[in-house]
Amino acid sequence: MVKCNPNYGKLAAGYLFPEIGRRVKAFTTGNPGVKVMRLGVGDTTQPLEPSIVKAMHAAVDGLSREDTYSGYGDEQGNAALRAAIAAWYGERGVTVEGGEVFVSDGAKCDSANIASIFASDSVVAVQDPAYPVYVDSNVIAGRTASFKDGRYEGLVYLPCTEENGFVPSPPSGKVDLIYLCSPNNPTGAVATREQLAEFVEYARANGAVIIFDAAYSFFITDSSLPRSIYEIPGAAECAIELSSFSKFAGFTGVRLGWSVVPKALKGDGCGDGGLNALWNRRQCTMFNGASNVAQAGGLAALSPEGREECGKTIEYYMENARVIREGLSSLGFKAYGGVNAPFAWVKTPGVGSWEFFDKLLNECRVVCTPGAGFGPCGEGFVRFSAFGRRENVQAAVASIRENLKL
Ligand code: PL4
What we know:
Radius of gyration: 21 Å
Largest sheet: 7 strands, mixed
Bound molecules: ligand PL4
CATH class of the largest domain: Alpha Beta
Number of helices: 12
Number of domains: 2
Helix content: 25-40%
Structural class: alpha/beta
Distance between the termini: 53 Å
Strand order of the largest sheet: 2-10-9-8-7-3-6
Order of helices and strands: HEHHEHEHEEEEHEEHEHHHEEHEEEH
CATH superfamily of the largest domain: Type I PLP-dependent aspartate aminotransferase-like (Major domain)
């Protein structure tokens, strides 16, 4: 019989979001006709912006004619889109070349695939709690031992707690890869320049690489906060950045993201082309480029008109975040995040996070995400997504006020 990858057997639980879906389905099946308010998965709800729709329609029309039809595109992405992404970095005072940008079908895949360019015995550090893909993909790749007492042996956890404002210090020992996410999913914390500079300093001193997930950078309005790790001097020599059109342009279903792998980023055994050449090799072999229609939409999203339209939708979601954060605070909950980030991170009142998830669902018909699903330090918290429709967000806060039994 064929031998399967034994690392799948190490995974502690099913993937977080399908488990939430399963519990919500069980509730709705058992309570037909009862409407639930979904503030769980960070999935956008507002329609695509007019300029994006127009560009995607035009791209489809182009595909419908023999003279303008196009098939496979470049594995690395459309040159105009790569240049537009590089220009977006330029506006932040950061120099990124189009050849350092790799367009993809989203940051989830990139965050899972990127570690394939590093040695299989690399030591990995993650924020705890963290977006589960970083941990699970490294478990599957064999970079951890078994799951014991709530943690994977061999993985370095960087606790994000109330005490450190949910932004950890760099590891005390030596690691090879560090996953950082800012604005953070799930805590909503945003790292300052000084905090990111500490990680850059650590990475340069230890020959480590930071994998910086900036999927929510467009939600930062405070200009003193960094939107890209490359705003920190020296980061181009030690960091890869991942980002996405999902949340800022509503592309969760359209699918489009990118990674930046600077040419200055070198590693042992990857030759003169450095990690950029390795990721290029990986993408050419295993990826056939993002959808041409999605890329046309992405280009429109980055145009001045697209950005203005997307900015209004971001404001809409951030008003939702305010409603959630202030609404729950007024009920006596300790609520974090929700400013410069579309997630509120709320302390559960003396119950475990899955237990609180069940209480909110059963008593209030509100879906959140249990913090424990993001790592051991997420226990005792739940996450609320601000990506819902306003009326649902308001109804959810009202229902918690009226129906939660504590
Ligand atoms: C649900 C930090 C959401 N089924 O859409 P992508 O692939 O460009 O971006 C995914 C992504 C990347 N990085 C971070 C993210 O938070 C996300 C999306 N996370 C959430 O609720 O945490 C959607 C999750 C999706 C999933 O499994 O990822």
